[in-house]
Amino acid sequence: MYCAYCGRLTRRCQCHSPDSDLARFMARGGRSLKRQERSSAYKRAVPPQVKRRERQALRAGYAKYFDSLAAQYGERCANCGEVDNLVLDHILPIARGGRSSYDNLQLLCAECNRIKGKLVIDCRCGRRKS
Length: 130
Description:
By secondary structure, the protein is an alpha+beta fold. The protein has one domain: DNA Binding (I), subunit A (Orthogonal Bundle), CATH 1.10.30. The chain has 4 helices and 4 strands, in the order E-H-E-H-H-E-E-H. The strands form 2 sheets. A two-stranded antiparallel ribbon has the order 1-2. It has a two-stranded antiparallel ribbon with strand order 3-4. It starts with a strand and ends in a 14-residue tail after the last helix.
């Protein structure tokens, strides 16, 4: 089995240690850390051409994606609720085969985005504009 957050084998995964990035990210959002597993590993070795194409697609539609996500989920960080320094974040990172499409993007503050890094965490679940 593989860790649903980092994609490593669960016996090699360090996500659930108290000082891990995942633990800090979850604590910042006020959520508890639960072990989640997948039956298959994430896609590895995404070619540079694909990464470049996805980043260009994100740059081209950045304002449209940002406005759509802000309208649907509110203009705040999906993890901690911060309203300043918001950026678009890929739920499944480009480096792991994620696409620059609306359903793979979320709004995070710069700090949460930095902590999340290449982890696969969807913070949009159940969060709607109130």
